[in-house]
Design brief:
With 271 residues, chain A is an all-alpha fold. Chain A has ten helices and no strands. Chain B is built from six helices and ten strands. By secondary structure, chain B is an alpha/beta fold. In chain B, the strands form two sheets. A six-stranded mixed beta sheet of chain B has the order 6-7-8-3-9-10, with helices on both faces. Chain B has a four-stranded antiparallel beta sheet with strand order 2-1-4-5. Chain B is globular and about 45 Å long. In chain B, β9 and β10 form a beta hairpin. Classes of the chains: A mainly alpha (271), B alpha/beta (208).
Amino acid sequence: MGVKPLSPADLALAASLVLVLGLLSWRLQLGLGKQLAIAAVRTTVQLLLIGQVLRLLFAHAHPAYVFAISLVMLVAAGREAVARQDRRVRGVHGWLIGTGAMFLSSFTVTFLALFVIIGHQPWYAPQYAIPLLGMLLGNTMSGVALGMERVTETVWQQRAIIEQRLLLGQPATTAVREIRRQAIRAAMMPIINSMATVGLVSLPGMMTGQILGGSSPMEAVNYQILIMFLICAGTGFGAVAAIFGVERRLFDARHRLRLDVLRVAGEVSSP
Amino acid sequence: MPPLEIHNLCFCNRGPYSFRLESGECVGLHGASGAGKSLLLRAIADLDPRTDTLRLGELDADAVAAPLWRRTVGLLPAESGWWFDLVGDHFADFNAIDDQTLTAAGFDRSVQDWQVSRLSTGEKQRLAILRLLHNQPQCLLLDEPTASLDQQAVTRIEQLLLTYSATHQAPVLWVSHDLSQLDRVSRRRLFMESTGRLVVTGGVADGR
């Protein structure tokens, strides 16, 4: 057991690939250079930090610590989900809807997996809890952000049609039925596609890591199957919750379309 | 059918508006573009936040669910919206429309299978009127109902709408830029000044 450790020089070599890509971006005037640099630095710093945190956490496994770090991850996911939406729900509500939906789905599914399915003692063991939650949050965040963006953008574009339907006496839930369905489908598509190609085209990072770490392929595969199902459920429930949340916010009690709750594209907003 | 009563209606920093449309009465509303005629109709349909009282006979807008209120006071927007591929899918039950109404609007039964994407502006307009009447509203709020129609169609549509109003005793608020049309369809007229103020030309009404 045990992976061959990577030296900083090994990582620097990998980083040089990104550097070459950055040069290419500059040469082709893609304007990606700055973003690429920031993303690369963030990857390094964030992963080094979480490495230290996990090291500490593994040494002092206490539910309170595990819960605290989960909350930090959730808040970060909430911020990121909001940042990915262009025409988002204004103010703290947009953040609350996305974060609430992720909390509901990711935390419930992770808890279920730890407590019922994996059944390790103690169930909150950070070796299991943190990576599992991380994978779930990461994927749920993409789904939630995609779904919310789709709803707000489509409602904005189709406001005349929605109001026409309201005028004909349709309740708000009927007037956005097709939009809601499309948004949930859009949020689910990435995970459904990746479930269809996993193993054939892609070998997921977690499974690869486990195999590199010395697990038997079958063990790694079983875990990967578990993870795929959890991610699928988490993303689906999260997207549905977030989209219903946005929908509630978009209409008032008198079934009026309130586009004033949406941020105008390019507007500076608080959180 | 009941009269439409509007009392101290305020919305978007406009108003208060107070006036009353009797059962079966058609009142014309005209005024410069941008004066807020369409906004007034939207507020009566409770599509924008507003204050105070809207009443259709015994029916108080705030006492019933908004969808029921909107179904009861049928608003025909200046530009109609269509969301399905086929015309017929936009009607609760297309077959329930009688031949006479269809002919009056210039269509026959085959129209239900037409593609919405291939409709002309005028066809859309006439179909939107059919769709509205199919909802059996007890009051009509019409925003330029004949704006994109040729003269022959205008006459037929005016007749169709007035017949509906007469048979259902439905009050009508008819917005138009065409004063000769308002002469034909209405006896009483409201004029909206560019500030949003309503002025009555004939009859009893009371705008701010």
